[in-house]
Specification:
Length: 238
């Protein structure tokens, strides 16, 4: 049975893209979390998965070779739509998962427990999950631990996002501080991708600055010689 598509799917996908995490290389911070999860819960498999449009992709994994599966097979597509840990003691007896290819075939999931990974504004991205090939139960204390590990994953994702954003801002600042190719005629600027764009757009895309339009005194004299600066700009404040 496929998990229903969340009502906020469009916003969720925008949020997922904002982290720029899909299809990235393995990173120690995430690898360590799944190792800890597998050790604590004594499961052969532990993963961090993110649910994309048509797939679930594994950022970190222990005990599994696959890098991704189709979204229709993702237990996490259910987990990410709730705020608490999803625990399945025996997947063969759960109507949502009994006919799932990951249950009927390799890796033969029986026990599943997943903590949702959600953005600060509550948009589900995926889950941290542990699975076993035998049926098991999860008590309240274990659920709390798994939930805490899930929060650690999100904290790491947030730190990674902010760090990347800072690097981008530094690069933008370097660009603004350096030499900028500017057209002698129209004054358009060539950006770092080789495209030409208006000065206003170039600066707005790389800073918090906004623009208002007016005339400088020299242009007033050139184009409106009959007017005074005071008539255009107003009398200077005393």
């Amino acid at each position: 049975m496929k998990a229903p598509i969340p009502e906020n799917e469009a916003r969720r996908m925008v949020a997922l893209r904002r982290y720029k995490i899909l299809d990235t290389m393995a990173e120690q911070a995430f690898d360590e979390i799944v190792k800890v999860a597998a050790h604590i819960f004594k499961t052969p498999i532990a993963l961090i998965s993110l649910v994309d449009g048509e797939r679930q992709w594994f950022k970190a994994k222990v005990g599994l070779e696959a890098r991704e599966t189709h979204r229709d097979l993702a237990f996490c597509a259910y987990t990410m739509q709730q705020s608490e840990v999803l625990a399945v003691e025996d997947a063969t007896k759960d109507a949502r998962f009994a006919d799932n290819a990951l249950v009927t075939g390799n890796p033969n999931i029986r026990f599943y427990a997943g903590a949702p990974l959600a953005t600060p504004d509550g948009l589900g991205l995926g889950s941290l999950w542990v699975i076993d090939r035998v049926t098991r139960k999860l008590d309240a204390g274990e659920k709390e631990i798994l939930q805490s590990l899930g929060k650690m994953v999100m904290t790491t994702l947030e730190l990674r996002r902010v760090s990347n954003q800072l690097v981008e801002e530094i690069e933008r600042a370097k660009t603004l501080a350096g030499m900028l190719p500017i057209c002698c005629s129209c004054k358009n600027i060539r950006n770092d991708k080789g495209y030409w764009e208006r000065v206003e757009k170039y600066v707005q895309d790389r800073s918090e600055a906004d623009f208002t339009h007016t005339y400088c005194p020299e242009c007033v004299q050139k184009y409106f010689p009959e007017l005074t600066s005071e008539e255009i700009f107003g009398a200077p404040k005393k």
